């Protein structure tokens, strides 16, 4: 890079490499650098585990496990007795007679409990767990909801608990949307009944799942409630439609 000198040179000095090193050392001594501090959002400055916590226990019965899993989530109450009172997850325990997966279950509960106690927005855990897939394939739980893995169902349990304590809010459907879904469901069932009489097997499937036997999996709510109506795929559970 060429620099044009417009003024007369009155003096000059040659800077040697050792002079640069000495100057850098001198500036480091004069202005010591502070160690970078991580921004960790603590739940409270002096938060300690109380003697008693309130919580809920959920049962998970999966075809991938011989015995059921019992998930217990305990909450801590912040700002008790004030208008800002709030329940937040504080720890989680998973118990089962099946000891084959004891190591990863203990590791998972300890990590989740540590994240809960750090505070901040912990709702991201739900999506992370629900995105875990089992290479052997998933399964359908009661109601026709598809679970890609047992870890995903644990995430669904945590999501349900967070909804119960008000940490996660579902987008509520309007009365018009509910009426539209009920109307479409009635129309689909009437059309199916006119075409053919339901066999006993189909009737049992319809009663247990709560949706028509010909329904497929909805990509939005993971429920077997997607039916073809008027040339458009429509979900009878959440109202999702590919046609908008």
UniProtKB/TrEMBL annotation:
Entry keyword Nucleotide-binding: yes
Reactions this protein catalyses: a 2'-deoxyribonucleoside 5'-diphosphate + [thioredoxin]-disulfide + H2O = a ribonucleoside 5'-diphosphate + [thioredoxin]-dithiol
Limits of the TSCPD domain: 49-162
Pfam family name, one: TSCPD
InterPro entries attached to this UniProt entry: TSCPD_dom (IPR024434)
Key words, A-Z: DNA synthesis, Nucleotide-binding
Enzyme Commission identifier(s): 1.17.4.1
Family statement: Belongs to the ribonucleoside diphosphate reductase class-2 family.
Name the UniProt record assigns to this protein: ribonucleoside-diphosphate reductase
Organism field: Dyella flagellata
């Amino acid at each position: 890079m060429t620099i044009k000198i417009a003024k007369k040179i009155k003096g000059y000095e040659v800077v040697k490499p050792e002079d640069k090193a000495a100057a850098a050392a001198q500036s480091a001594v004069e202005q010591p650098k502070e160690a970078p501090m991580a921004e960790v959002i603590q739940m409270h400055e002096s938060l300690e585990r109380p003697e008693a916590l309130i919580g809920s226990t959920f049962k998970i019965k999966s075809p991938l496990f011989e015995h059921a899993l019992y998930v217990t989530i305990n909450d801590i109450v912040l700002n008790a007795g004030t208008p800002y009172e709030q329940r937040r997850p504080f720890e989680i325990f998973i118990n089962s007679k099946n000891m084959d997966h004891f190591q990863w279950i203990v590791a998972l509960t300890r990590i989740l409990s540590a994240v809960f106690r750090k505070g901040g927005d912990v709702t991201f855990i739900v999506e992370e767990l629900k995105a875990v897939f089992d290479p052997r394939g998933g399964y359908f739980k009661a109601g026709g909801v598809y679970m890609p893995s047992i870890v995903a169902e644990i995430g669904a349990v945590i999501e349900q608990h967070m909804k119960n304590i008000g940490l996660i809010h579902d987008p509520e459907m309007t009365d018009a949307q509910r009426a539209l879904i009920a109307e479409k469901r009635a129309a689909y069932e009437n059309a199916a009944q006119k075409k053919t009489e339901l066999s006993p097997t189909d009737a049992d499937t319809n009663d247990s799942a709560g949706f028509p036997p010909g329904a497929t999996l909805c990509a939005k709510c993971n429920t077997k409630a997607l039916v073809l109506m008027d040339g458009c795929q429509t979900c009878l559970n959440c109202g999702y439609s590919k046609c908008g």
